[in-house]
Amino acid sequence: MSVAEESVLTQDVFEDLARSAIRAEEALRLEFVNGKLGVKAVPDGDHGRIIAWLTQICMQADPSRWLFGEQGLRIESYRRGNARPDASLAPMETFAGQGEWADPDGVLMVVEVTSYDEDTDRRDRVEKPRAYAESGIPVYLLIDRDTCEVKVHSQPDGVRYEQVITVPYGKTVTLPEPVGIELDTEPLKNWTR
């Protein structure tokens, strides 16, 4: 058991630790979800290409919004957690002046692209959907490179997302309002091992 698991980790201690990790020679991407300290894998080239592809689609749909990569968010009930989604769709000025860990108010959608690591199942498929729903983020888009599926979580009720639509790569899926985009997932086949 690690020191972080044995002691109580407060929000302030986590944020100090996260700032220290960023200054380290090998940058770590730390998160604090569901009361647990986690390390997120550094993205690979295909991961980055997926985010670029999605950014282009979001900008074409509404140029007043941006898909912000790696913006830290305070999530979960009463903001007891910190997550760094792969991307957050929000109006352009949403995060101005907020710093490294922003309030999720105004975020229309968060995006996670699975990494090829052992924590993906727990982190991206279990803990984050619950945490994002608790935070009231309207849409959670999971691009699952392990299963070659896209999952669109919507209608947060403060505990979970009431609707989850799963489609295999190659199908078109609707990202519901407030996002309002039809997403053709065919290109994702090019960026999955």
Write the layout of secondary structure elements.
Layout: H1 3-6, H2 11-23, E1 29-33, E2 36-40, H3 45-61, E3 65-69, E4 72-75, E5 81-83, E6 87-91, E7 101-102, E8 109-113, H4 120-134, E9 139-144, E10 149-156, E11 161-168, E12 172-175, E13 181-184
Parallel strand pairs: 4-7, 8-9
Antiparallel strand pairs: 1-2, 3-6, 4-5, 6-8, 9-10, 10-11, 12-13
Largest sheet: number of strands, sense, barrel closure: 6 strands, mixed
Task: Quickly give the CATH architecture.
Answer: Alpha-Beta Complex
Flag low-confidence runs.
1-6, 22-27
Look at the structure and name the CATH superfamily: tt1808, chain A
Per CATH, the class reads Alpha Beta
Order of helices and strands: HHEEHEEEEEEHEEEEE
Number of helices: 4
Structural class: alpha+beta
Give me the count of strands: 13
Termini gap: 33 Å
Task: Write the CATH fold name.
Answer: tt1808, chain A
Strand order of the largest sheet: 3-6-8-9-10-11
Portion of residues in helices? 25-40%
Report Rg: 16 Å
Walk me through the structure.
The protein has 193 residues and is an alpha+beta fold. The chain has a single domain (43-191), classed as Alpha-Beta Complex (tt1808, chain A). The protein has helices at 3-6, 11-23, 45-61, 120-134, and strands at residues 29-33, 36-40, 65-69, 72-75, 81-83, 87-91, 101-102, 109-113, 139-144, 149-156, 161-168, 172-175, 181-184. The chain is globular.
